[in-house]
Every structure is written in C-alpha cells, then in structure tokens.
C-alpha cells in the first residue's frame, strides 16, 4: 500500500470535521463506523489512513469504532480513554477490564474455541449484546452462568454445567470465552449492554522463506484477472489486474458460509422446499427442515442459491449482508462489497487481492470450510430423516493438489474461482492461493496456473545443482499485507 501521510491525514481530517458538523449523518470512511445496532452504509470514496491509525484516531476523537477488526491491531491500540472496556487476549489467555483507560481487573481465561474448527473463537471488535445470569445453550445442551453475548454464537460466561448440575469438562468449549463462575460474575457486574469487547489473537502464519521460481513463461490465461500468491508469506508469484474489483458470482458463498457459521447456531433448523434442492425428490414432503450446519454442504458444494437466500433471510437479509460487508472490511478487503449471500447480484464485487485475504483467513482460522469444499459428494439428512445427496460442482477443488475453494458463474462475472492448492517445496507443504476472475474457462485457467507454479518452484537442491540452468535467485516479491 502506498502511504502518503500528509495527503491521507488531510483528507481524513476534512472528512472527520464534516461528520462532526453534520451530526445527523454517520459517515463510515471506508470501513463501517457504526454502532452494533446501526445498518451499514456504502463505503465513502475517500482516501483514508491504514486501519490501525484510523481506529486510534477515532477512539481519541470519541467516535464509535468498527464493529470488527481482524489481525491488524494490538490491545494497546484500542483501549478507549473514557468508559468501560473489555479485552480478551487469546494468546496470554487473560481477560482484562478497563475503566477510563486503566486496567481495573484481570482474570485467567479457562478455555476458548479450538483453532481450525467451526467453533474457533473469532477475533475482532465487538460489544456486549445480551446479559443473562443463566443462559441455556441449545447447541451444547448446557447451562452458562453469568453469560454475556458479544457476537453471534459467542459468549463470555462462567463454568458450564449440565442440566443435572454436573460441571462440564475443562477441555470442552463451543467457541465461547469461559471463565470461572466467580470471575464471570465479576465481569457480569462490570459490563453494561454495549460495553466494547476486543478479542485479540495473533496471526498464526508460520515464518517461511519465499519460494524461488524458475524462469518459466506463464501460460496463456483467458481470464481478465488472476493471482497466484503464498498464503503463509503473502508473496505474489504472478498476477494480472489483481487490485481491480469485478463481480465474483458464487465465490461469494465462502463469505456466506463464514458469516453463517459465526452468527447462526448450527442447531437451528431452516425450512427448505423440495424444488429448492437439486435432489429434492428424495424428500418425503414438499418442505423439510434442515440444520444450519448441514445446509453449508448444498451452499458450498452444489452452490445452491436458494439455500443461500434461505440462510440470509433466516437471520434477516439486510443484517446478514451487513455482517458480510463488516467482516470483509475487518479482513482488509477494502475493495469488496456484497449485495446478497448467493452471488447472483452483479454488485457482489471483489478483487483477487481481497479474495486472497479471505482465503488466508479461512485457511488459518476456519479451515473446516475449505475442507468441506473438497468433498466430491455428501449425503445430508432432513430433521424428518429424509436423505438427499449433494454433488460438488467446484471442479477441480476436490482433486489433488487442491485444499479447497469455490467456483462461480454469472453473466456479469463470467466464470470465477478462488482456491488453495498444496505445494511441496523443500519437503515443506506450502499453501498457494489461485484466483481467477472474469474467465470464459475458469477450470482451464485454474489448472494452468496451478501447474505453472508447481513447475516453476525451485528447491534448495535444484538451486545448488550445476545442472539447473533455469534456476533463479529468490526475488523480492510484492507482498499482500494483512
């Protein structure tokens, strides 16, 4: 990113002054500066500082921060000078209470969601949404004392116990931040509705060296835009128009699945009509109910638009799409916008650079979603017991060396693909994102790019070999920053 401090500072200051004067208008300046109950608005077309600088400036000015920020801030960056605030450090496993910028108490975190699972505790900026002295979880079938919801299915609470009073195992977590009951009671007494909560979890990228590439010509790619980049290092190995926003079609559903996982209990059921499923003839009635978690299979594998619409409308379509956009901004996808959960709308726009950020987050923090997309087929049962088969239409992601991904196609978008492949270099698995937009043949383009990076990758042994006539020293690649 090209940082021009004086210009960006001037534009930001001018926009901030305008917002203070026109008090009836809430301006977002590129990410969604709204309270947790306000509807999102479109991004303003104004040059703005980087997220960390922007948020620090807003906190100092008393402006409500973004609802979600991922992997770009430390706790010290976000502590407000006035009022109450809660931070949860998932690295140190401690929860801190602040008042007027000063720590007033701290407590050990007993458990958090397991990394890489659908229940991994989401990092980001939130606020206390609800408070219940005892909350019954329909997901875990347990009671959660002194429960404070901060986002979707995620709570801060005391030690959970079963209906017969038996305490839950210390190792059990559904993704919430669990404290001792005594400590949770103190946090419960401290927190108010809308008290800010920041959940910190450091990046999990392993420090790996850049890959050296042989001087092999790139294949002819029909797509208007593409990107090959390293998930772990951010190195861009090949690209074309990777920062230009284009319609992405059903690649959208990767974000839909991510948001559904974090907002809607997988134990909730949603009605689906048999005409809305490709194999709906197997259903015993015209309408069946399916668990939300099971609906992710037709959503991702057969790219079912009706299921996408059912999921978003179950939560509230406007609110769901709002969270899709908020999460995109939190991931640094600043040239991305969503208008629906299916990808049918041509207003679902993104860039290869931004889709790389989404794939990296999924690979690091929600790998279960990519794992789901590798299935060639899956049988899903309705609550009645009726079974139907889902077939994967995202060829070639269910074939080696792919680790998962999503394809799409509409008239406006052409054919699209966002996928991750596994590449072995120096006996180390490297995860490489391959993204193609506006292609007449995404399968051919995706396979050609994947084969190219595989052939071009040079091992240490090849570098040292006198016979290696095409080897090259590792160059300085453009990096996609978090």
Tell me the layout of helices and strands.
Layout: H1 5-21, H2 51-61, E1 84-89, E2 94-99, E3 102-108, E4 124-127, E5 130-137, E6 142-151, E7 154-157, E8 177-178, H3 181-190, E9 196-200, E10 212-213, E11 225-230, E12 236-240, E13 246-247, H4 252-263, E14 269-273, E15 287-291, H5 292-300, H6 305-315, H7 317-330, E16 349-350, H8 352-365, H9 367-373, E17 377-381, E18 387-391, E19 402-410, E20 414-425, E21 428-439, H10 442-456, E22 457-458, H11 460-464
Parallel strand pairs: 1-9, 7-8
Antiparallel strand pairs: 1-2, 2-3, 4-9, 5-6, 6-7, 10-22, 11-12, 11-21, 13-16, 14-15, 17-18, 19-20, 20-21
CATH class of the largest domain: Alpha Beta
What class would the helix/strand composition place it in? alpha+beta
CATH arch. level architecture of the largest domain: 3-Layer(aba) Sandwich
* The CATH H-level homologous superfamily of the largest domain: DD-peptidase/beta-lactamase superfamily
Q: Which regions have little confidence, pLDDT < 50, spanning 5+ residues?
A: 1-70
The total strand number stands at 22
- Average pLDDT level: 82
User: Number of DSSP helices?
Assistant: 11
Which topology of the largest domain does CATH recognise? Beta-lactamase
Strand order of the largest sheet: 3-2-1-9-4
Choose one word for the global shape: globular
